[in-house]
């Protein structure tokens, strides 16, 4: 069997990550930004060079289709995302999309025809940093969100997803809706320490944590930091700090795999000598057990109300994202494990704490993922790093799994 080309993949990886490159070795390509547009343009060009039939749908998902011998059969879909965190890592999402492209190029070089079509996909707005919820493009595709809902989303500057999509030229004509797929595979960095700590090169991913995202706002009273006596204050940031502490406490007591994060926080008027009037912040809880996630959500709602009462400020909170934990398809998992055995990779089975587009695909077609190690378990930062030999091994595992299913 012709194996994937490390050199070609490395060349594409380096050239792709020139786009939005940061001085500290990361990338800054938030969804629908100019850098994201340039990344999309390069991807479409490479898809076309590889002879793929390119389709962009109404929320900006990009598909590249390679015909099968029996082209009416449901395709095998392989991919991930190319939007990044603000100052994020070079591997997150990118190795999954370029890995899918590399599979196509390898099959083209070898003149291999598959029974089924193969489609490579780059999903819109997986990260959800600018527009929440995350995994938006795959969520609309899976029928979880309405395309109009997606287009109506606003970022912190009040820019709308639909307008930004048009501005960068990626509001495609094709409808974004569920269609028959044979299976879906995604190669991704683990973004945690398990594989690196165990010295393994591949993870056979059996499922993904469920998670809930809250958007919370405390509204108190701005006032002068000097003459205002402490007992007369209604300080939105004091209420917020109670909840930040509570998130850490809840994560430590509700189930051993529960994690909780307050990642985004905006204070207004954010002035050194003004008592904070409003604070807008987010809460993220995750666990492989959905009841644990729901218990954590109930507890943090109580904590928000208690904090508001103590400080006598107004509280508003809404769930902006709730996705259930996902157990992937046994057949696809065993196909990945068999491919890892074929390649002679040292691997283990694990579940993902990070969310992935595969979570939504799993809702309507047999799905599985391949992980490669994150050095130091680090991700969502410019220091994200994976040994190139591991990227190549993971891509070859993906190649064999996809080929297996494309001839099923
Ligand atoms: O939130 C996540 O886990 C993913 O990076 N969107
Ligand atoms: Mn990702
Ligand atoms: Mn990510
Ligand atoms: Mn808000």
UniProtKB/TrEMBL annotation:
Q: Which InterPro entries match?
A: Amidase_Cbmase, Bact_exopeptidase_dim_dom, Peptidase_M20, Peptidase_M20_dimer
Chain ranges of the Peptidase M20 dimerisation domain: 208-310
Q: Does the keyword Phosphoprotein apply?
A: no
Name any one Pfam family assigned in the record.
Peptidase_M20
| This protein's record includes keyword Isomerase | no
What's one GO MF term for it? Answer: hydrolase activity, acting on carbon-nitrogen (but not peptide) bonds, in linear amidines
UniProt KW keywords: Hydrolase
Under what name is this protein listed? Answer: N-carbamoyl-L-amino-acid hydrolase
What organism does this protein naturally occur in?
Answer: Halolamina pelagica
